Fold this sequence. Notes:
The protein is an alpha/beta fold. It is about 35% helix and about 20% strand. The strands form two sheets. Strands 6-7-8-3-9-10-12-11 form an eight-stranded mixed sheet, sandwiched between helices. α9 links the parallel β7 (about 210-215) and β8 (about 245-250). It starts with a helix and ends with a helix.
Amino acid sequence: MSAVIDHIVHPMQRAAVRPLVEVVNAGRNFDVSPPWLNRVIQRQPRVVLRAVNDVSFTIARGETLGLVGESGCGKSTIARLLVGLYAPTSGNILFDGVPVSQFAKSRAMRRRAQMIFQDPYASLNPRWRVGRIIAEPLKLHGAAVVSASGTNADREAASAAASDASIDARVDALLVQVGLGPADKSKYPHQFSGGQRQRISIARALATQPEFLVCDEPTSALDVSVQAQVLNLMKTLQRELGLTYLFISHNLAVVRYIADRVGVMYLGRLVELAPKPALFANPLHPYTRMLLEAIPDLEKTGTARIAVAGEVPNPLAPPPGCAFHPRCPYANERCKVERPEMKPHGVALVACHGIEEGRIGPVAETH
Length: 367
Ligand code: SF4
């Protein structure tokens, strides 16, 4: 396992700097059984959904890791695991060396990791003015007047002492930082466009001076032109504040723009993890290739393209062996019975028997 962990560490962090986020063999199950009485009467067993299964990766400080995959592949469950909204069923998730389970116990820890949600319409309280929405975490964490280096006790005391004026000034600064203005704090969320609402969500996330932002499809509800503006804002904020991102999206073009490394998920497992240039130039896993083939060919290169074939299997009864085998044009008998593990291949990690056995060549040869 340590060889694999060494391999998935981004070059930026090999210089003996501990990754900010370490996910080691993490799994998360959900009990989706019918009610107990129904099960007893109908003699049904418990039904367990393995939403995330044996996933490992790290994220270096200042890095953006993109996570892609079709709906239901476990991306959003990973997002919630990383900010402590769910506890892992198995494995470990460390934030700066501390288990994320500590988020529930320590406000000081919770302050350091925040989340931006997909739907800016649903994630903002429609009855609150924008000023109150952004001030809420400031009041809770006392971050308006305390530096990030203060102790927990300092922060608790400062929180109580934080004056309305200092909070007001911080809200103004946050609104300016995300491209809005101080006058916007007296408005309600419905008075803004989708892009502006996502900027408000970002300002709220930044209020506690976090180091790590988990962005769960933050631009997928926005128009394409607005998406670009929000992505540029996120890049600028990352540069200025030294933020670390986990960026989840089903849109490969968006991930290509913002990520340093990309992880590809299929049915709760990571199937490929590679630096962005390598993943887009030479995708290894057949599923990654399928996803890239699905991007519309606007440049009309004339390259033969393979449509994304088949449906994602029922996650309650995933296929044995490689879960991708019913859709994979390279599947053989081994693929149907033996689950592939993540193994190094060049600069990437990939879970595929075909790659391991040398049956699948570089992308150019397969076209
Ligand atoms: Fe295809 Fe086999 Fe690789 Fe799975 S392990 S992606 S079925 S070649």
